[in-house]
Write a structure and sequence with these properties.
Strand order of the largest sheet: 3-1-2-4-5-6-7-8-9
CATH superfamily: Aldolase class I
Number of helices: 5
GO molecular function: 4 iron, 4 sulfur cluster binding; carbon-nitrogen lyase activity; magnesium ion binding; S-adenosyl-L-methionine binding
Radius of gyration: 16 Å
CATH topology: TIM Barrel
Structural class: alpha/beta
Helix content: 10-25%
Function: Catalyzes the complex heterocyclic radical-mediated conversion of 6-carboxy-5,6,7,8-tetrahydropterin (CPH4) to 7-carboxy-7-deazaguanine (CDG), a step common to the biosynthetic pathways of all 7-deazapurine-containing compounds.
Bound molecules: ligand 2KA, iron/sulfur cluster, magnesium ion
CATH class: Alpha Beta
Subunit structure: Homodimer.
Number of strands: 9
CATH architecture: Alpha-Beta Barrel
Number of domains: 1
Binding site for substrate: 12-14, 27, 70
Domain Radical SAM core: 18-197
Shape: globular
Order of helices and strands: EEEHEHEEEHEHEH
């Protein structure tokens, strides 16, 4: 299988429940959405790599056996061959997705699903729901929590390239936790704040 790969790098997970986890990020190119504020515009650039090429590169730079597959939107490519080779080598596998596509046979290989929805999603069962505060309302958050089953619920400020809406985000967090049955938490992009990749 040939994958469109934007970059592969070792770092610490910057966001969500696994913040600080030492992983290799495999960033796949391309997305089925085009959000105005997308911070991965460069996902249009890619080199073609097979699952074996990817494993080889990951093996060279890894500090442990954990990877996070991100994008772009990774689920628009057929992930099964890549997941199979990584799992065969004993990797913990996380994925970052917008939830537009179902994760079916892939689920057997994936240890952690983090979903950042941009609208209604097909995916309904995830480990972590991470909603970016693109002027969203308490009602929209309630809709998400009613529709999506997750272990952890996060809100993230929106970084539009110029500003990061911290203040309206913590206000929203306070408001949702007044009415929600879930415990919503704040997720910051700690890789940007701490100056790592
Ligand atoms: N350190 C670090 N953590 C991340 N978590 C999600 C990322 C992404 O771009 O998907 C990302 C990223 O680009 N860097
Ligand atoms: S879903 Fe994510 S990768 Fe795709 S355009 Fe939106 S922000 Fe960018
Ligand atoms: Mg990023």
């Amino acid at each position: 299988m040939k994958y469109k790969i934007n970059e592969i790098f070792q770092s610490l997970q910057g966001e969500g429940h696994n913040t600080g986890k030492n992983v290799v990020f495999v960033r796949l190119s391309g997305c089925d959405l085009s959000c105005d504020w997308c911070d991965t515009k460069y996902h249009v650039n890619f080199t073609e790599m097979t699952e074996k090429d990817i494993l080889e590169k990951v093996e060279k730079i890894r500090e442990n056996k954990s990877v996070i597959i991100t994008g772009g939107e990774p689920t628009i490519q057929n992930l099964l061959p890549l997941l199979e080779v990584l799992k065969k080598e004993g990797y913990w596998i996380g994925i970052e997705t917008n939830g537009n596509n179902l994760i079916k046979a892939e689920k057997e290989y994936i240890d952690y699903i983090s979903m950042s929805p941009k609208s209604k999603t097909k995916l309904k069962n995830v480990d972590e729901l991470r909603v970016v505060n693109d002027n969203i309302t308490v009602d929209e958050l309630i809709n998400y929590e009613n529709e999506i089953n997750a272990k952890y619920y996060f809100i993230s400020p929106l970084d539009d390239g110029e500003d990061i809406n911290y203040k309206s985000t913590i206000k929203l967090l306070g408001e949702i936790n007044e009415v929600s049955k879930k415990q919503w938490r704040l997720s910051l992009q700690m890789h940007k704040l701490s100056g790592i990749v």
